[in-house]
Amino acid sequence: MSRAAIVVNPVKTDAAALRAALEAAEQRHGWEETLWLETTEDDPGTGQAREALARGVDIVIAAGGDGTVRTVAEELRGSDTPLALLPAGTGNLLARNLDLTLDDVEHALATAFDGTDRLIDVGIAELRDGARTEKRVFLVMAGLGIDAQMIAATDDELKAKAGWLAYVKAIGTVLRDKNELRLRYQLDGGRTHSTHAHSVLVGNCGSLPANILLLPDAAVDDGELDIVVLRPEGVVGWLRIVVKVFWENGVLRRTSAGRRLMGAGREVRAMNYVKGRELVVKLDRPQQVELDGDLFGRVTALRTRVDPGALKVRVPRGM
Ligand SMILES: Nc1ncnc2c1ncn2[C@@H]1O[C@H](COP(=O)(O)OP(=O)(O)OP(=O)(O)O)[C@@H](O)[C@H]1O
User: Fold this and answer.
1) Considering only CA atoms, which of 82, 104, 86, 84 is closest in space to residue 9?
2) Which ligand 1 atom sits closest to the C-alpha of 10?
């Protein structure tokens, strides 16, 4: 008989309801009793995922937000054990990018027990602060600058109540900040470039909360990272970026005012897209770094690379 493990963030889930749904799903699919492992503030998923692997389970279900998913995936990377998602956060960015069910526990469990496996790329980030280097994975995106500040400025209470709207408020807060990064970067071992920017995003997948597509070409299994350097000049520059992002999502295209605002084929120079397998960024002063929506402290250098097809994710059959 097959056996699953579930790594549950008890703060984000209704444990009693989840246990009942889990029991029903196990019986329906003829699986053994699932190994139930709860995260704690001090161990948000690492020890639990390691235990699941050591016990030789057939699948690990992550029941929590993006942080829980990221932590569990870090341990499963490169193993044969698939990850199933039971989204319970506000962002749920990986689940959104894979078009998975967001709020249907039964469907998510049916997928875990009877879905099919898909290989996705994993982003690896080496965070350097002086002589100290820490290696972490990301599934959706790594960010420096405004992006990370945006998360630092996000009001947790508002995030709980209004979800992604909190990010919009945070953008407003950060916009007033004149901070700019001076950086040197190197793509795929090529020439070193110097530039200034407000934000650098390295994406493995393309969608942000509210399904705003910031990185239109990013695909989760293309073996490449998609990098965007935001270099807006003042408020007008930021407005152009917002307009471009909304335009590409069809929000503005549907209105005549939107079409006038955008103009036919106008370039948005404030945004630069590049693709590559490895990006090294060196900063003139320490900056906050963000991985899949969680802050990981300040860094003076960041090396990101892609580990192609390194994670098995369980998705519904026929996807
Ligand atoms: N038992 C626990 N008690 C208190 N805090 C916990 C516990 N388990 C995990 N945490 C905390 O929860 C955080 C992870 O939350 P998670 O990613 O599951 O949800 P989230 O942050 O709301 O997700 P999202 O980014 O999608 O909004 C970690 O910072 C961890 O310290």
Assistant:
1) 86
2) 1
